Amino acid sequence: MTQVGNRIATASIVNDDPHAAAQEAIRELTDQLGAPPSIVLVVFSADFSAQAVRDGIYRELPASSVLVGCSSFAELGPDGALTHSVTALGLQLPGYTAKALCTQGGTDSFAIGQQLAEELLQPKPDLLLLFPDVLTLNVTRLLRGLQAQLGTDIPILGGAPADNGAFRQTEMICGSQILQSGAVALALFGPLSIHSAACSGYTPVSVPLRATSIEQGNVLLELNGRDALSVYLELLGPRRNEMPAVTIEYPIGVIRRTSGKTEVQTDLVRAVFGIDEHRGALVLGGDIPEQAELCILSATRPDLLSGTNAALQSILSAEKGSGSESDLVLVFNCMSRKVILGPRYKEESAILSSLVAPKIPRFGFYTFGELSPVARTTQHHESTFTVAAIRFHRAT
Predict the structure, then answer these.
(1) Which residues, including other chains, have CB under 8 Å from residue 284's CB and lie 6 or more apart?
(2) What is the Cα–Cα distance from 172 to 183, expressed in whole angstroms?
(3) Cα atoms in the Cβ-side hemisphere of radius 13 Å centred on 10
(4) Strand duo 156-159 + 127-132: pairing
(5) What 3-state DSSP class applies to 32?
(6) How far apart are CA 195 and CA 390, in angstroms?
(7) 278: left (phi over 0), alpha (psi -120 to 50) or beta
(8) d(Cα 293, Cα 329) in Å, to the nearest integer?
(9) What is the pLDDT along the chain (396 residues), one digit of tens a residue?
(10) Which of 137, 184, 263, 368 is the most exposed place for a label (fewest CB within 10 A)?
(11) Residues 351, 357, 360, CA angle at the centre, nearest 5°?
């Protein structure tokens, strides 16, 4: 009997009708795979109704297939970066199993993460693809809750569903269910290897500042003993008049010193999601450690593209060292980078295409936050380009 190998395909359809676009995307995947995919990930324009996308998918997809998806700021697929599309990844992985999971949002994100993990303990997955809504969950704490149960060695990849930048409501798909809060996830069980990288390209434009007062993990009240908002506005100079829109260009970096007292390494980037003028506070998109050293960050367009290139070169170097080529490349890229790059945003996809072999499928989207391992432990990022190259070892 001939063994059927792993088959992976991607498709992007731009169409004003989300039902028709989703239906056509599944047809394309089926044509490429030779049969309907058993596992589907889908990302779609926030202009589209999740219900219409789901219904279009199920016109072509068997009910037995595992389906997970979410809305996006822009989609990444075989044709590069697109807007107003339905982009789908289809997988046929003989010998592997997959499970779709979902949870509603709530006030205790750590506990929600623990509860979600309880569905994955026997057995634990080899990879978890997670799509958490930052508008209804604290993603940093959700991740910690998951890791408290599963351990930190299980790779968790993904991105936060997005709308068109209004930060009002996102949508997610988990099988036949539609969610407008919480998170959806796809757990994969089977032998695989992953090389991942995360790089922002942002650099400090302020001296190091101590986070002297933090509330609830992500509300920065004081920097060096002063109101955080006042310090932030001073450092913006004349651009303070562009508040709050300018905050997308000036995130906060969690830093560590690498050499002496002057050189620093940015470990994590946190977007400024809002301000509290009454309390003089900055509301960040994710938690930061108590008493952390921080810097205000900024980046030119070339800086961001250099960050993209650095992340991809890291992946290529790791692949070369392992002597194996990936079967799939996943990209989760922050929407703030697309905004700053403006008409040059497609250059990130062009760098990807120039470095990754055309035969290797690539899939992803522009997010409201990214999840990717750094030093083998998954972290919650923002304003960052994250990429993962996956190799499936069974039935190849």
Answers:
(1) 218, 219, 220, 252, 270, 271, 272, 273
(2) 7
(3) 23
(4) parallel
(5) helix
(6) 7
(7) alpha
(8) 33
(9) 334 578 999 999 999 999 999 999 999 999 999 999 999 999 999 999 999 999 999 999 999 999 999 999 999 999 999 999 999 999 999 999 999 999 999 999 999 999 999 999 989 999 999 999 999 999 999 999 999 999 999 999 999 999 999 999 999 999 999 999 999 999 999 999 999 999 999 999 999 999 999 999 999 999 999 999 999 999 999 999 999 989 999 999 998 877 655 567 787 999 999 999 999 999 999 999 989 999 999 999 999 999 999 999 999 999 888 888 899 999 999 999 999 999 999 999 999 999 999 999 999 999 999 999 988 899 999 999 999 999 999 754
(10) 263
(11) 110
What is the CB neighbour count within 10 angstroms for residue 154?
20
Which residue is listed with tokens 């562009």?
Answer: 242
- CA separation for the pair 116, 201 (Å, rounded): 33
Q: Over the Cα atoms of the chain, what is R_g?
A: 20
First CA to last CA distance, the chain: 15
DSSP class of residue 138 equals -
Task: Please name which of 187, 171, 190 lies closest in space to residue 179, comparing C-alpha atoms.
Answer: 171
What phi and psi, each to the nearest 5 degrees, are found at residue 127?
Answer: -155, 135
Give, in order, the Cα–Cα distances in Å from 141 to each of 70, 132, 147, 221, 277. 21, 11, 10, 19, 25
Nearest to 357 by CA among 333, 308, 324, 395: 324
The closest of 275, 276, 257, 279 to 266, measured between CA atoms, is: 257
The answer to whether the beta carbons of residues 150 and 177 sit under 8 Å apart is no
3-state secondary structure at position 123: coil
> What region does 363 belong to: left with phi over 0, alpha with psi -120 to 50, or beta?
beta
| Residue 254: both structure tokens together | 């969690």
Q: What is the rounded CA–CA span in Å between residue 380 and residue 388?
A: 15
Q: Are 32 and 361 in contact (CB under 8 A)?
A: no
In this structure, the chain runs to a length of 396
